[in-house]
């Protein structure tokens, strides 16, 4: 142990003295980068394109989710969010306009994957069952969480770069995504999960039934 410490300090002593107090990790910054396009701007635009593509995929996917829903309440929630999604796309176009860029999408593998998952759920759950709605809600919440992460980040980046108007616009969408996520939780917890729970017996119920009776009280378990 001691030897390692000594070696470390030896190494430091033999290093050439640096004048930039250890800031050499970002040479472009110390050299000045007036001629270089902002990497943060490039990333911001990339993320805008990502979510622009994602929202357009959702415009196609949400009607299928609404159609597949068992309860009217969930169907309505999807249809309401479809209308919001249309507005969100317009808002993104506005943000592109503010920064003087053409509105265009860039393939988002994550959203493609999440949409595929929701299609699989429709295939693998029984039509008209509450279990389908419970599963669709979780699939939709995965989508909302992806959007919340993206818009949350975009709002902060816009503020950091002084794009206050764009930040306000993106924040409106962020709130809608958060509200939708909360609404889905409410619908699930109100009654859908409970009714889905009543749709069948668990595989572990039969095996454990005998045991459960004898171990119902903690006292008998500990004996
Ligand atoms: Fe959205
Ligand atoms: Fe993405
Ligand atoms: Fe959404």
Rg over CA atoms:
26 Å
Our measurement of the CA-to-CA distance between the termini, rounded to an integer number of angstroms, reads 51 Å
Mean pLDDT over all positions: 86
Task: Report the structural category.
Answer: mainly alpha
CATH architecture: Up-down Bundle
Bound molecules: fe (iii) ion
Uncertain segments are 1-20, 219-223
What oligomeric assembly is this protein in? single chain
CATH superfamily heading: Ferritin, core subunit, four-helix bundle
Q: What percentage of the residues does DSSP assign to strands (E)?
A: under 5%
Tell me about this structure:
The structure is a single chain. The protein is an all-alpha fold and 223 residues long. The protein has a single domain, classed as Ferritin, core subunit, four-helix bundle (Ferritin, Up-down Bundle). The chain is 78% helix and 0% strand. The chain has 9 helices and no strands. Helix 6 packs antiparallel against helix 7. The protein is elongated. The relative contact order is 0.10. The site of one fe (iii) ion has 3 residues, from loops.
